[in-house]
Amino acid sequence: MIYNHCHRISISKTDTAKTKKTLIIASCLCLFFMIIEIIGGYLADSLAIMTDAAHLLTDFVSFLISLLSVYLASRPATKKYSFGWHRAEILGALVSVLFIWVVTGILVYLAILRVISEDYEIKATIMIITSAAGIFINLLIALVLHKHSHGHSHGLNHHHNDEENRLLVETRSYGSSKDLSVEEDLNQKKHKNINVKAAFIHVIGDILQSVGVLIAAYIIYFKPEYKIADPICTFIFSVFVFISTVTILRDIINVLMEGVPRSLKFSQVKELLNNVPGVKAIHNLRMWCLTTNKIALSVHLAVDQYSDPLKIMREATNILTNRFGPMEVTIQVEEYEENMNECVQCQDPKD
């Protein structure tokens, strides 16, 4: 690998392009069949199919968010947005989740009215055709995503992005300030793109849901008096939609509140840094998420006056990145003072 100053010259964009292509194909297929299901659900007068379309909407949104994530990760930071545009995907995800909840809530309300009034008629034949097509389309989407994920995992030069594969480490000590770029040797087992993998798992859930709609359609076809199976499916699938979006909302809240990433623990990180030779105290340890898959960390390391600050900074950086993978790190090295133990600002945060 060739380096120029502190930045890489050669950056492979092959895998990023493949990821974009895969997600675009999956998005188009998802959007196409979502429209088909809306039409089919309307013609069949089936709320179950409409709810399945709402679940497809969550997939379509997740694909768009993944695409946005890949696109924004490649955009450089600006003087106004010094961390880049990563948080835009979080804001988009929040709006999407709220919209999906509104749509699902309306469908549940309509399903309740149907159960109460029983004044509806399901066209089972159209419902069967639509749900069967849903299984086929979802299998096709799963095949596209699985093919990318499988082939992607065997690559030798996977490129997450330049920001994620380097560390910005700032050392302020004895009047000096240095920026270092550290390239990590990533574990090849982690080369599957997380966006594609997550989308694949989501589509598997859609296939099971479409199978459920098909079963309900056959029940109504052979036993029209059991038409209540349609609103029942709506209730069940609405729960699936809620569960799938709640996990997204949990991540959104953690990012917006600048919570500690789930992959990091405060006590564990502090213990690792305390084990660096020459470090006598640690304070102002901060860990937060810039986005769901981009971590930032900053810390002050107080060292004795005879230690080499650059050596300590490098060793601390290596320990963090070898243990937790690529992240954006800022380390400030300063001379240890006895009064640090009494300083309120230097104490660990509460649990």
TrEMBL record:
The chain crosses the membrane at residues 23-44, 56-74, 90-112, 124-145, 199-222, 228-249. GO terms for molecular function: zinc ion transmembrane transporter activity. Gene3D superfamilies: Cation efflux protein transmembrane domain, Cation efflux protein, cytoplasmic domain. One of its GO terms (cellular component) is plasma membrane. Residues 23-257 form the Cation efflux protein transmembrane domain. Residues 262-336 form the Cation efflux protein cytoplasmic domain. InterPro entries: Cation_efflux, Cation_efflux_CTD, Cation_efflux_CTD_sf, Cation_efflux_TM, Cation_efflux_TMD_sf, CDF/SLC30A. It holds the Pfam family Cation_efflux. It is found in: Membrane. It is a multi-pass membrane protein. GO terms for biological process: response to zinc ion. Keywords: Ion transport, Membrane, Transmembrane, Transmembrane helix, Transport, Zinc, Zinc transport. Its main location: membrane. Belongs to the cation diffusion facilitator (CDF) transporter (TC 2.A.4) family. SLC30A subfamily. NCBIfam families: CDF. This is Zinc transporter 3.
